Request: fold
Amino acid sequence: MPLKILSEQKLFGGRQIRFEHSSNTLSCTMVASIYLPPQAAQQPVPVLYWLSGLTCTDENFSTKAGAQRVAAELGIALVMPDTSPRGEFVANDPAYDLGQGAGFYLNATEAPWAAHYRMYDYIVKELPALLVASFPVSCVKAIAGHSMGGHGALVIALRESGMYRSASAFSPICQPSECDWGKKAFSHYLGEDRALWLHYDASYLLSQHKAELPMLVDQGDADQFYPQQLRTEALVSAAAAHQSNVRVRFQAGYDHSYYFISSFIEDHLRFHAQYLLV
Reply:
């Protein structure tokens, strides 16, 4: 699975790299970014995967969050994939919340989406294998994300808990099976059988059993999508039911933007470092 470097910049002693590769999982060319801290010049480093939200690309987090300074200090690589398959022959929709830029980190089963929209397998299987083979990164990893990407990070962490050391999210879509964004996406990608939707619903997954994986969630109380779309209280209730290791913090006055993310990203990186650097 060869990759092509599109750009590279030195940043806080490390390297910010953007690359493209042909994805067998998604049947298209994908673009992603990785930040390699200076420690990667000596040995493979652990990885934090960041999943972005609706309409985003691999560049939103790398240019807006301000995460590289702390990642360089800690010795953690940051991986930023795109939010969906893309290309002329990839199914799309005019709306911002369906199709390209809105992959919802699931494996679609319905036409025409099933041919390309398999972001779950891409994030969990194909991309990590490519990165370990191509860059000085280890198999030790954590996962985080924002909004739609927060949904993806929590769901993947809960379903694949043995693969990750920790998980975190900003403003995640906590109960997509019950909000308008999730209902629209799931009905198109997965069909009308709501039982299938629950496999990609973090609140439902947490309600079924205790989660030992440490998780941190930040939600701004001035977020324009809270509570209707994000449904944070459902996640809080599900975590409490089995005393799962989930900490949810409500941050006064913060909205849904990258201003919120950049305000608390250092907290999240240091949270993950407790588990990645042991």
About this structure: The radius of gyration is 17 Å. Residues 3-276 form a domain with the Rossmann fold fold (CATH 3.40.50.1820). Residues 258-276 form the longest helix (19 residues).
